[in-house]
What we know:
The complex is a heterodimer. Chain A is an all-alpha fold.
Amino acid sequence: MGSAVRSSTNVVPLRSEQDSDVTKRVAIVDGALSCIAAKGLRATTVDDVARASGMSRATLYRTIPGGRDAIIQATVETEVARFFSSLAVAMGAASTLEAALVAGITTSASWISDSAALSTLLEIEPWVVMRHISFGQMDRALALAADFTGPFFGRWLEPEQAARAADWAVRIVTSYLANPSDTIDLTDGAQVRSLVRQFVLPGVQALQESKGS
Amino acid sequence: MGQVPDTREQITAAGYACIARFGPTRTSVEDVAQAAGVSRATMYRYFPGGRSELIDAVVTWEYRRFFLALYEALRGAETLEEVMERGLMVAHRAIEDHEVLQMILTTEPEILEPAFSAEGQPTRELVAEFLAPYLERHALRPGIEVAAAADFLARMLLSYMGAPGRWDLDDPVQVAQLVEVELLSGIVPAPSGGR
């Protein structure tokens, strides 16, 4: 691994990276992501991940015990955590319900379209992704997303309505993910704002009023 | 020539029966040929791609039956509200009660891929085309375009019928609220006093 020897590196980490299991874990996850981006999930082996993350199989097994399944699991969990933290930043900065809905939708859509691993999966093994947003499985995705984003909408809505608003935003994102549109780009804030203003906000508000009365 | 569609249909129906009985994983070309009463050679004449082509054909066939039954159930629905409410309830129940679909979802959901479009046209477009005339006949809020509203409603109906989330789609009161308050508030003018 010639590239690992970089004598010109002038930034010395405060603590040797070798010492940190967290750092190793992140390296493995990022290695796995690059493998998935390159050739999909099915074709990705533990050896590929070891090579991509620049560590031995032994170190890899020590850091994430449980083999390939555990590595995939760790990768998914890390990516979900990264996704929700970017969502929290965007939604936390919103100052109106409309802005929170728009931020939630555009941030999710951008995160999805920026993920090289997801793009590859959607192209060559779509069911790896689709099965989580289809039929009954979708209910779990909805519950997870509503638990996470509900409190953000809770600044303007009763908890029950906040959860419904979250639920609705997830349906929009997953619908356009499963079924891209020629006319609407969910990463475009202006387009999403007009979608939200026209179709979503009136329903969220009417539901809140009908429940409140 | 007149026989061609019949044999194909017969094999497809037998394929469905086998999948229902053995599950998609354990259904072989031989099982289907036997159930359809045709030889392996005949089987491959109609489905040169073998097992995977046959399974695609079965899924497409059942998908079409599902939508034909849905259209039949919606016959006579007059308003946009009625067609959406009845459609959601019927489709949701049909999905939940579809034992073969539910089995496939837990075993090999990837075989359903061809069902998400019919002859290349996404299901969403079919549903939107179905809704458009109802929107055209309905009073709409200013600035609402039929095509955009139909597309949005089709997306949401498809999402809810497969995964109802917080709504009980067996309860007509909740379904009416979902459709008339949540989904249509932005699209149609507020009704002048309840349903």
